Amino acid sequence: MSTKKGEDVFEKYALEAVPKENRQSWPSIALIWIGTMICVPALMMGGALITGLNLLHALLAGIIGYTIVVIYMSFQGMQAADLGRPTVSAAIPSFGFSGSRVLISLILGISTLGWFGVQANVCGAAFSSVLNTWLGVNFPVWLSSLIWGVIMLSTAIIGFNAVKYLNYIAVPALIALSVYGTYSSFVKYGSSILSSYQPPTPFPFVQGIALAVGTFAVGGVIAGDFSRYARNRREAVLSSVWGVWPAGVAMLFMGSVMALLAGTYDITQVMSALGAPVLGLIILILATWTTNTINAYSAGIALTNLFQLPDSKRALATAIAGILGTVLAVAGIMNYFLNFLTILTSTIPPVAGVMIADYWVKKKGDPSKWFKYPGANWVGILSWLIGALVGIYLKIGIAPINAMVVSFVVYLGLISVVKQPQPVPSKK
C-alpha cells in the first residue's frame, strides 16, 4: 500500500506478498469486517430466520453460525498474515498454480461478483422506492442499481486504504443509525409480540445455522485478502473475531426484531414508517457501500489471478469486476438470492477445508514450506469437489460444515496415499 507523498494513490499489491512495513493494526482490519457485516443481507437473514424459528432460536442460530465462520476465517487469516498474500495466492500449494488460477479464481470471483450484484440491486430498489414514496418520482430500479453500483465501485478500485477510511466514517454512523431504527421499532410497535411469537413455517434449527453460515461463507474464505495486511497471527485472529462476530450477531438480531415488530426487516421501510425515509436510505446506502467495496475488491484480485495480470493492473481488474457485478444488479439478481445463497453455502467452505488441511496439518503452519506448486494439484481439486457435492446433496446436518469437514478429511486421506511432486520452495 502506498501512502508516501508523490506515490500512486492506488494500491500496488495484488498477488505478491505485502511487505512487513506496509502492514496495518488489527482494529483497522476489524473495522473493514464490521462494515461488511452491517449490511442488508444480514438484516434480511434475521428476517428469514424468524420465519422458521422463534426469536431465541434465531439468535442462537446466528451465534453458532458466525462462530463457525470466525473459526475457519481465523485459520485463513493467520495463513495470509504469515504469507502476506491474498486467498487466491495462498491457495497455490493446495490446488496447484493452474488450479488456483482457474478454479479458485472463478469460484471466489463469481461468488463476490454475485454478492456485489445482490447488494447493488438491493440498494437500487430501495433508492427507487424511497424516491417514489417520498417525492412521487418513478425512478427505474435498473438505472438506480447501475448508478449506485458504479459509485460503490470507486473505493474498491483505489484499494485497501480507501476501504479502510470509508469504514472509519461509515461504521460509527451505521451502528448508531441501526440501533436507533431498532429502538424506534420498540417504541412505536411495542415488544409484546417478541415473547409470544411462533414462526409460521417452522424449520429445523440446523437449517437456521446453515443459513447464518451461508450469509458470510464467502467472507470467511476470502479473509486473506485483507488479513494479509495483519502484522502477525494474533492480530489476524483479533480482526476476525471482533470484526465479524459482534456486528454479525447484532445485525441478525436487529433484522429479526424489526421483522417481528414492524413487519419487515427492510430498514428503509421501517424508517419510512417512523417518518424518516431519508435517514433509512442513508443507512442502506452506507451499509451497502461498505460491504460492496469488499466484494468488488476481492473479485478484482480473483480476476487479476485468473488472467495472471501484473499487480499494477489490480485497479483495472477491480473496475471490470465491479462492472460485471453491476450488470448482474441491473439484471435483477436479487430475485435469485436464496438459490444463490444455497450454492455458496455448499461450494465455498470446502475451499477453506482444503487450504486448512494443506497449510495447518500437512505443512504444520510453516510459511517456509509455501511454494508455487506447478500445474494443477488434483488432490486438492478432487477434495474440494467431493466436499462441495456432499454439501449440496447430503440433507442431514449443516451443509457448509459437512462440505468443509469432508474436503478437509479427503485431502488428508489422499495425500497420504498419492505421491505428489515436491517443488523447491519459492522465495517470497
Architecture overview:
The longest helix is centred in the N-terminal third of the chain and has 39 residues. This protein starts with 25 loop residues before the first helix and ends in a 13-residue tail after the last helix. The chain has 428 residues and is mainly alpha-helical. The protein is built from 20 helices and no strands. The N terminus is likely disordered. It has a single domain, classed as Orthogonal Bundle (Hydantoin permease). Helix 3 packs antiparallel against helix 13, helix 6 packs across helix 7 and helix 17 crosses helix 19.
Q: Indicate the low-confidence ranges by residue numbers.
A: 1-7
Label the overall shape.
globular
Mean pLDDT: 85
Strand content: under 5%
At CATH level 2, the architecture is Orthogonal Bundle
The biggest sheet, with number of strands, parallel, antiparallel or mixed sense and barrel status, is:
none
Number of domains: 1
How many strand elements?
0
Order of helices and strands: HHHHHHHHHHHHHHHHHHHH
Portion in helices: over 70%
Derived structural class: mainly alpha
> What is the CATH homology-level superfamily?
Hydantoin permease
Amino-to-carboxy terminus distance:
17 Å
Per CATH, the class reads: Mainly Alpha
* Total count of helical runs of at least 4 residues: 20
CATH topology: Hydantoin permease
